[in-house]
Amino acid sequence: MSVSLSSLILLPIWISMAQIQQGGPDEKEKTTALKDLLSRIDLDELMKKDEPPLDFPDTLEGFEYAFNEKGQLRHIKTGEPFVFNYREDLHRWNQKRYEALGEIITKYVYELLEKDCNLKKISIPVDATESEPKSFIFMSEDALTNPQKLMVLIHGSGVVRAGQWARRLIINEDLDSGTQIPFIKRAMDEGYGVIVLNPNENYIEVEKPKIPVQSSSDSSDEPAEKRERKDKVSKETKKRRDFYEKYRNPQREKEMMQLYIRENGSPEEHAVYVWDHFIAQSAAEKVFFVAHSYGGLAFVELMIQREADVKSKVTAVALTDSVHNVWHQEAGKTVREWMRENCCNWVSSSEPLDTSVESMLPDCPRVSAGGFFTN
User: 65: burial class by Cβ within 10 Å (0-12, 13-18, 19+)?
Assistant: First the structure.
C-alpha cells in the first residue's frame, strides 16, 4: 500500500500534537510551536505532488481516444480499452478524469443523433426568453406529422443525457450497448416518428457570486476592546478552516449554483412538459414508449397526471429495469389496470429472455431481459 507524500510529512506532526495535548498546561508552548510549523507548510505544493491539476482535455482526441468502426472506445496509439485507474492511488483525480471524458461523450452522442440519425434538436421551454435557462429534446422530421405511429424514448437517472442508456456501457462496451441509437434507427426504418427525451437536463450551473464578508467592527456599537477580541477569534477560526480546506481540497474548485429550467426541473416535470407540448400535439394514431430505470417512474407519473390523454393515445409501453412503484406514486386502480394490459417491464435476470419473473407489485408483467439491460 502506497502513502502520499503529504501524509508522510504531516503524520508525525499530527501525532506529536496529539501527544502534547494530552499533557498539562506546560505543554501549551510546544503545541503553539507545532501549530506554527504546520501553518508554514505549503500544503498546496505538497498536494500538487500527490494530485495532478484537475485540467483535462475537452476533445476525444485530446484524451487520445476514439470510437472504432465497431463503436468501441479505444486508445488511439495502443488500441486498448479505456483505463479508469490512469494514475494509481489517485481515485479522486481518476474519477474527475472519467467525468470529463463522460461530458465529451455526451456531446459526441448529441452529434450522432443529429448527423447519423437525422434528428432535430428542439429547445425547451418552447417560449423561453433569450436569457433564461434552457434544455432540449431531439425529434425526427416527422415526429409531429406522422399519422400512424410515434416512438418516445426516456433514459434513466444519473449522468446520462438524451440518446444514452448507460455511460458506463458506452465507455467500456460500445455505442450500440450504451446508446439509444439502435432503437432510433430501427424505429425510423419501420416507419415510426421518434422523440428522444432529455429528463436529466434540469438546470444549468453558473459560478456562485462571492458575497463580501463585512467585518463586525464596521457594523457594531460594541466597545473597541470587545470588537478586537471578536475579530481576532473570527480570524483565527477562518485561518483554521482555510488550513483544513487546503489539506482536504488543495485544488479548490469553483463554487457553483443551479438555475433550474422552467417546467423541466425534474424528470417527472420534463415528461409532462414534453407530453403537453409535443406528444399530445402529434398526429400519430398510436404512440409507443420505451423507458429505462427512472424513466419508467417518470412515465408512471405522467400516466397519473394525464391519465385520460395517455390512455387515448398510447398503445404500449416497454419498460426496462423500471424503478417505478405504483404504491409510493399513489397510482389509482384504473392506472394499475391499464398498466397490466399495456405495459411490460423487462428486468435484469439470469433467466432466458422473456421468461416471466415474479413481481411483488400489482402493476405490469415482469419478464427477463436476458442480460440485455444494465443500469
Answer: buried
